[in-house]
Amino acid sequence: MKRLTLYLFRHLMVATLFVTAGLTLVIWLTQSLRLLELVVDGGAPIYLFLQLMLVTLPTFLSIVLPIGLLAAVLFTYNRLTMDSELVVMRAAGLGPWGLAKPAVLLGLIVMTICYVLTLYLAPASYGELARLEGMAKSQFSTVFLREGVFNEAGDGLTVYVRRRMNDGELQGLLIHDTRIEGKPVTIMADRGRTVEGGAGARVVVFDGNRQEMDLATGRMSQLFFDRYAVDLRVFERQLSERLPDARERSTAELMHADEIPELAPFKARLTAELHQRYTTPIFALGFTLMGVAILLVGEFNRRGQSRRIVAAVAAVLVLQSASLGITNLSVNNNAFIPLLYVVVTIPVLVGIFMMLRQGIRGRGTGHLRPTAG
């Protein structure tokens, strides 16, 4: 029996790794398209792009793992059914719980991994991702300037770029700076480029003029230049003033949010985030129990169990959608938080009930067969 259990566990684990890796690569690809602009247009170093890609991994892996495990369970047990291996295992004495044991064990392992991700790694990753993106916006600000529109680069700073070249050069620049009260500055230049210096990244503009108006006296001063350096690192100051999002805060900080006065206005959001971290990993066990129950309960069909697989996938979509919707509602009203626990326990209870019912039926049938003979 142990060999059969190990055999099933090995197949489930390999399938889970492959499915999770495939889903992770797909999500990474969608993320890379957004982050690749830093390297292609902004001239950011490749190591910054790799860092951004790496820190995004824990942020979605806790969602991908339960789905990958469910896909592995459905694929593995359906293939074993079509190959009649499950029939042989049942004839060897393995009941429904014996067949489901490897999947449940793997589900508990994945649930533990998901708890580590959601409670510890994901919040740290969100914080590091925000820091790296803020640093990129500060040092490579021209990446975020769209051509042909007036870009709000920060409080009191508007930048217009007529055209952005492939080599990173900016053509047709207009910069309006009102950060110094009472002395607005307007800079017009034919072209510009981001350069690195000892104080960080600056935008150097060429062949233009700088106009400064003193509103108190009504006098305007004008300066024509061949080369002039402009500070556009406003994103760095915005990052330092920004309050961390609920997803960036540690679990310990969320648990003691009541003791921090400045977090009082965000108490509902922080509480919802905390309970979401508690409940989301349970889906790993719930999806596993639901998947094995749907495939192992009832009669076997060697032609496959496509209807049951479709039913399992539909149930997962409904549960995930319900969890997402309740989470959004609980952000504004914490009275919906108990529903989060209801949603994640539904697949666990349904799976256990179906397996227990099948086990009772199997024992009853086993007692009747010798008598009928």
TrEMBL record:
Regions that span the bilayer: 12-29, 49-77, 98-122, 278-297, 309-329, 335-356
Q: What is its main location?
A: membrane
Which is a GO BP term held by this UniProt record?
lipopolysaccharide transport
Keywords on record: Cell membrane, Membrane, Transmembrane, Transmembrane helix
Among its keywords, does the record have Hydrolase? no
Question: What does the record say about its membrane topology?
Answer: Multi-pass membrane protein
Q: What PANTHER family is this protein classified in? A: SLR0882 PROTEIN-RELATED, YJGP_YJGQ FAMILY PERMEASE
Q: What is this protein called?
A: LPS export ABC transporter permease LptF
Species name for this entry?
Skermanella aerolata
Source taxonomy: Bacteria, Pseudomonadati, Pseudomonadota, Alphaproteobacteria, Rhodospirillales
